[in-house]
Amino acid sequence: MHLKFRHLLHLHLLLFALLLFVPSPFHCSDLRSLLEFKKGIVSDASGLVLSSWIPPPENPPCPSSFHGVSCDLAGSSVVAISLSGLGLAGDLKLATLASLKSLLNLSLSNNSFSGRLVPSLGSMNTLQVLDLSANRFYGPVPARITELGGLNLLNLSHNRLSGGIPAGFQNLQQLRTLDLSSNSLWGDVGLSLSEMRNVEHLDLSGNGFYGGIALDPGNFSSLGNTMRYMNLSGNKISGEFFSSDSIAMFRNLEILDVNGNLIGGQLPKLGSLTNLRAFRTRNNQLFGPVPEELFGDGMPLVELDLSGNGFSGSVGSINSTTLKMLNLSSNLLSGSLPSSLGSCTTVDLSKNMLSSDLSAVQNWKDTLEIIDLSSNTISGSFPNNTSQFGSLISINIGNNSLVGVLPSVLATYPRLTRVDLSLNELTGPILPSLLTSSTLISLNLSGNHFTGSIPLQSLESAESTDLTSHTPLEILDLSDNQLSGSLPPEVKNMQNLRVLKLQNNTLAVDWKLLTYLSIISRVMVPEMPQPGLVLYNISYNDLSGVVPQTLERFPETSFHPGNVFLLFPDSISSRTNNSGINNEEVHRRRLNSSIQCSPQRSCLATPAEVLGRSSHGTSYKATLYSGHVLTVKWLRVGLVKHKKAFVKEAKRIWCIRHPNIASLRGYYWGLREQERLIVSDYVEGDSLALYLYESTPRRYSKLSVSQRLKVAIDVVRCLCYLHDEKGLPHGNLKPTNIILGLDLTARLTDYALHRFMTASGTAEQMLNLGALGYRAPELATEAKPIPTFKGDVYAFGVILMELLTRKSAGDIISGQLGAVDLTDWVRMCHREGRGTECFDTEIAGLEEAPKAMEELLALSLRCILPVK
Hints:
Blueprint: H1 2-20, H2 25-39, E1 43-44, H3 48-52, E2 69-71, E3 78-82, E4 88-91, E5 105-107, E6 112-116, E7 129-131, E8 136-139, E9 153-155, E10 160-164, E11 177-179, E12 184-188, H4 189-195, E13 201-203, E14 208-210, H5 221-226, E15 229-231, H6 244-248, E16 255-257, E17 264-265, E18 278-280, E19 285-288, E20 303-305, E21 310-313, E22 325-327, E23 332-335, E24 346-348, E25 353-354, E26 370-372, E27 379-380, E28 394-396, E29 401-402, E30 418-420, E31 427-428, H7 432-435, E32 442-444, E33 449-452, H8 461-470, E34 475-477, E35 482-483, E36 499-501, H9 511-514, E37 535-537, E38 544-546, E39 565-567, H10 573-579, H11 583-595, E40 609-613, E41 617-623, E42 629-635, H12 643-654, E43 664-669, E44 676-681, E45 686-687, H13 688-693, H14 705-725, E46 738-740, E47 746-748, H15 759-772, H16 789-805, E48 812-815, E49 818-821, H17 822-831, H18 841-844, H19 849-863
Parallel strand pairs: 3-5, 4-6, 5-7, 6-8, 7-9, 8-10, 9-11, 10-12, 11-13, 12-14, 13-15, 15-16, 16-18, 17-19, 18-20, 19-21, 20-22, 21-23, 22-24, 23-25, 24-26, 26-28, 27-29, 28-30, 30-32, 31-33, 32-34, 33-35, 34-36, 36-37, 38-39
Antiparallel strand pairs: 1-4, 2-3, 40-41, 41-42, 42-44, 43-44, 45-46, 46-47, 48-49
């Protein structure tokens, strides 16, 4: 019996000893969970996870050899999984990690994981850090996530999560960082803020939160004591800004960002925010004066962005010694420029109504690196005594009213890389030192009145080659000036040039020089690594000849409109090979002959075809040897202004570019009075008049309701462009001047012709419009009628009636009260409640017709209302 007892005792001791060396089921479940989690990883760009997550032979309690897995000090439990930024992908089953009872940190950010956030995440109550940001997780945020009472950081940003924010965030007393940005979450932002407790970093940006933030201070009592960073940008928050009492609660706030919302009202006093370093309200609906405390030393502001609102008043002086970035652009600020900018490095005051001159700039400090004053009403000249700007990198004063010559001081700023003085009234020559600057990358002087030549050729040959080859200039825009002469060959040395815009000047380029551009066309010279020119435009000049083959890779719009006698090479290889003439000789012959194109020596491949005749003259279809087809309008003798006025108007109309307008390409002013031509794009198609009135035989299919509506929309878009952007009435609007292309897209022709005409020519045009039924009645009583915006609107109203009725404005229609014209007939039918009887019978019965046609009818009647 005693021996039997001892034997049993030994067996129990042996069993106990064996159990000491067997991992507990708890530890085995940790390993199992990790291996189950691994099954969801289908791609491992780094190769670190799939290669290392292999169970070791000794089967340890915590597999510390697994990449990204951390164990506790005893080596018995998994406490952290950190796999951020490893290029992992897969549809994860996060529930497989719920059994890790000691897990403190789960970081899977910056991968391509997908799947839903499962409710079982709420059972991982030991978690302190949960970072799933920058993945592809979708679905709602599980309500049980608010059960993670020990959570210190929750980052679910940059995913595809949707739905509302679960209630219960007030339970997360330890939460210090909450980032839900860049998802599709929504909810009342005020309610969400009132639930937060002790959060220091809150980011709800880039979602769909709505509601207001002008809440009672009591809603922020616990949040206000801890909040340091608050980002609510890119939502749908409306109402007014935080009240003075509410904002005072956030005494520790350092960064406040509400960009891109619908917040209105005025800003409260912000002096209580004594720790605020960044304040951003860009693109909201705030108005009123800018609080003065934002410009002083009462708060340590480093960045202030109030752009894209409706702030008004003036900005007197900025005295802050901490403010570095100031953006007040796109507001309604007025008055003079600030007399001081403190220690700012970046200042954007563009798109306001600031006036006066640039004298205040002389007092600004040398800390400035970026200045943007564009799109204001600043006048005067640029002061030369501003040599303090040794740190200046970029200056933009475009779209103002500056006058005078280019200040020579610009070329002395040692770090300057970008200059934009476009759309001003500057005159004189262009400074050679700007084109050969050792720092300048972008130079935009377009839309001024600069004269003279492009000053590269003014340098000595050896010097210019050296300077231009080392210039870093990438963007050069000298368009819309009055530059003359030729394009200097030194352009070939500008190794970094990517954008060259010289259009709308009076350059007369020797094409032999332009062949050098093959040197900077890197695509044509493979051994040079630079990409070379990508945008090139010399249209609206007085060039002639044949475009070199090295420049054929650029679109036709780089050379036309303008340059009427500038041609592209034809496909001539087969003809030249058969004739025994080499390509070089043919090119030389064609170049010489094309330069001499004139009424005496034609450029046309076929005889011109008459397109139509009007009170102005005759229009021809001209096909050039290059294959280009143009419309050439010969203007009647005695109707045209003198040459200087004619050329001035041609320059102005050259600038008109719209997809629904036949662009003007150039003009010809011959020695004889009979040689006055204007050249425009030829539009393949037929006039709206033919579609509406041609019936026997029927050459044109009837226009549907939607097609007629599209024509009306195309026309009104053109009128809006001409009226609002170019300040020009069409002046000759009628169906014969509306050409429908093969896809029925409408393009207007014969626009602004009155600008070329004498007073008698304009009067004759208006008389012709009246006879056809497109002249506003009030213009009939004018002694010297001229085209007006209202006249265009009247003509458009008549055209709408023609589209609806398929009757001509000149038709006489019999009715109960006798014969009336089209406009009177439509008025009468509408007044008697019989408006639908006016409609074209071929489409009136269609299902799509009634509502659209009735709305067009009402619009047409409004258009022909008399001017009050």
